[in-house]
Amino acid sequence: MNQRPIIQTATDADIPDVLSFVLQARAELFPKLGATGMPADLAQFEAIYLHGDGRFLIARVEGQIVAVIGYLPYDARFAQLNYHDRKTVEVVDVEADPVWQTTHMKRYL
Fold first, then answer.
1. Which of 8, 44, 48, 50 is the most buried (most CB within 10 A)?
2. Containing domain of residue 35, as a range?
3. Which top-rank group of organisms is this from (predicted)?
4. 24: domain CATH number?
């Protein structure tokens, strides 16, 4: 597992694999969330991450997704955080395959 990942921005063709990867990771980490349905940002993946202001990056090793990260512009919902004059993003999803956790895969993203 000394291979460096290839990191790319998600595309239309990646959506099915990305959703499968993220939903599986969520189910493993938070089993009770499965009953709550798909998160709004994932349900509107194309509009938010491909054509909107959000971004979604995929790390692959030998063509397989091993980690992902999604981020959106920060929406200033916390008054105590004064980021109003700065461009700021919020990481809304970061997942890594358990096999790759010890390789610090999330740091690459």
1. 48
2. 6-108
3. Bacteria
4. 3.40.630.30
Structure confidence by residue, pLDDT tens digits, 95-107: 888 877 666 666 6
Q: Which amino acid does the sequence have at 94?
A: V
In a domain, 97, yes or no: yes
**Structure pTM?**
0.85
- The answer to whether 68 and 5 are in contact (CB under 8 A) is no
Q: 27 CB contacts (<8 Å, ≥6 apart)?
A: 33, 34
Give how many domains the chain has, as a whole number.
Answer: 1
List, in sequence order, the alpha helices (H) in the chain: 15-29, 40-43, 45, 105-108
Phi and psi dihedrals of 35, rounded to 5? Answer: -75, -15
What is the helix (H) or strand (E) element at residue 69, kind and residue range? strand 64-73
